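Need a sequence for this fold. Nothing fancy.
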C-alpha cells in the first residue's frame, strides 16, 4: 500500500506543481473584468457619475459627462451584479452623485446563470470578489480560473499561447473611464465574438 501511494505521489507531482503556476498565469490574463476593476479602483475618490448595466450600458460613454464618470457595464451583466458592484464600492466613492443603471424589460427576469453567457458568471467571484447569485451552488468554477475558462480553452491557450483563444467578451479597447470600444462590429459580430 505504501509503495502504491509513493507511485501515485510521483505520478501526481507534475500536476501539483503545474496547477498553481497555470492558475496564477490565467489570473493575470487581460479581460474586460480585470481591466475595468483596475481602472475603477484607481479612480474611486474622483468618480461622480457611475454607470452600470449589461451591453445596454455600453452606449453610455463617460467622456460626454460634465463630471468625472466611470462605466462598469459588461456584456450579459444582470441586475444582481450591477447592485453588488455598486454596494461593494459605495463607501469608497466619496464624490458619487449619480448612478445610472440602464434597465430594459428584458433585464427584469434575466439571470446570467440561466443564460448562454453563464460562463461569464465565475469572473465576478474570481476577479471582483462578488459571491455567486445562487449561494447553494458549490461549483469549482468560482474558485479556479482553469475551471472558469474551461479545460478546452486552457489547453488551446497552452498549445498556442494565443490569448484570444481564451478571452471572453474582450472589447478592442477599454478606455480609462471603463467604456468598452467594440469598434464598428455589428450585433451579430459581437455575438459571435463571445
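Here you go.
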Amino acid at each position: 500500500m505504501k509503495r502504491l501511494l509513493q507511485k501515485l505521489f510521483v505520478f501526481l507531482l507534475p500536476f501539483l506543481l503545474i496547477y498553481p503556476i497555470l492558475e496564477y498565469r490565467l489570473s493575470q490574463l487581460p479581460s474586460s473584468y480585470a481591466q475595468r476593476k483596475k481602472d475603477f479602483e484607481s479612480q474611486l475618490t474622483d468618480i461622480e457619475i457611475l454607470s452600470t448595466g449589461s451591453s445596454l450600458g455600453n452606449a453610455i460613454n463617460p467622456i460626454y459627462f460634465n463630471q468625472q464618470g466611470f462605466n462598469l457595464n459588461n456584456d450579459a451583466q444582470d441586475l444582481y451584479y450591477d447592485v453588488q458592484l455598486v454596494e461593494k464600492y459605495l463607501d469608497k466613492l466619496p464624490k458619487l452623485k449619480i448612478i445610472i443603471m440602464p434597465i430594459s424589460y428584458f433585464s427584469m427576469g434575466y439571470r446570467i446563470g440561466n443564460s448562454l453567457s453563464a460562463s461569464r458568471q465565475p469572473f465576478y467571484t474570481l476577479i471582483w470578489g462578488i459571491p455567486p447569485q445562487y449561494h447553494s451552488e458549490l461549483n469549482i468554477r468560482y474558485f479556479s480560473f482553469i475551471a472558469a475558462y474551461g479545460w478546452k480553452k486552457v489547453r488551446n491557450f497552452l498549445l498556442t499561447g494565443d490569448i484570444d483563444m481564451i478571452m471572453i467578451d474582450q472589447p478592442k479597447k477599454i478606455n480609462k473611464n471603463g467604456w468598452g470600444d467594440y469598434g464598428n462590429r455589428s450585433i451579430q459580430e459581437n455575438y459571435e465574438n463571445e
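For context: The first helix runs from residue 2 to 27.
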